[in-house]
């Protein structure tokens, strides 16, 4: 045994990072300053009449699958809400423009296509409902 | 990207988490004892996981033969590609660590093992998804 100090430092930092990451994961955050405006042409599918959820996913991402299933199931019977699923890898221009850093990232757009919030990581059902309800 | 990474296979989600826990233990020993051979062993495991898939490593074998038969409850499956990606990242860190040892640099060895250990720990304890966080960044940097 040489020293336990490096091990303790690594485990302490990883624990702190893990807890911080868990806390911010999946919450819809409002982004007013840099709100992007998207349209059907950029997204490759029509917007919802009131709300559009745009989910970015990638291949090496287990929570993307659960998020996709949750959002499509939740929005299936919402006539004014559309759920669009985008493979980040084949839309890197859009990913760069929207500054998407990880997957899943879900943007919530109002009827004009303006981004009113985004959730990084798998969102919870209640938060998705609240976010959809908050869009005018 | 290798062809294997494009073919999805469904595996028990608990397998990679069990493997991550063993990885944490092995890398913790490597870091605390500064032992190159322990890291070399883990590097071989990472290599198998990265090339053949996470379900083919010795850790996965222990999971399948010892742990899984004793587990109850519904089996939740996942695509094997996200953990396979994580194994590749682990392999890169392990290689850097071995390189550090080869040139006699304790800091390079310790930092590389530290990153691999942190990633395995986050995966094991927090179910952290390395592919979710890193893959897009790698793509974005590559196309810059």
From TrEMBL, chain A:
Gene3D superfamilies: Glutaredoxin
Record PROSITE patterns: THIOREDOXIN_2 (PS51352)
Domain Thioredoxin: 8-136
InterPro entries: Thioredoxin-like_sf, Thioredoxin_domain
UniProt name for this protein: Unannotated protein
Automatic annotation (TrEMBL), chain B:
Pfam families: DUF4395
Regions that span the bilayer: 20-48, 89-109, 115-138
Keyword field: Membrane, Transmembrane, Transmembrane helix
InterPro entries reported for this sequence: DUF4395, UCP030042
DUF4395 domain mapped to chain residues: 11-140
UniProt name for this protein: Unannotated protein
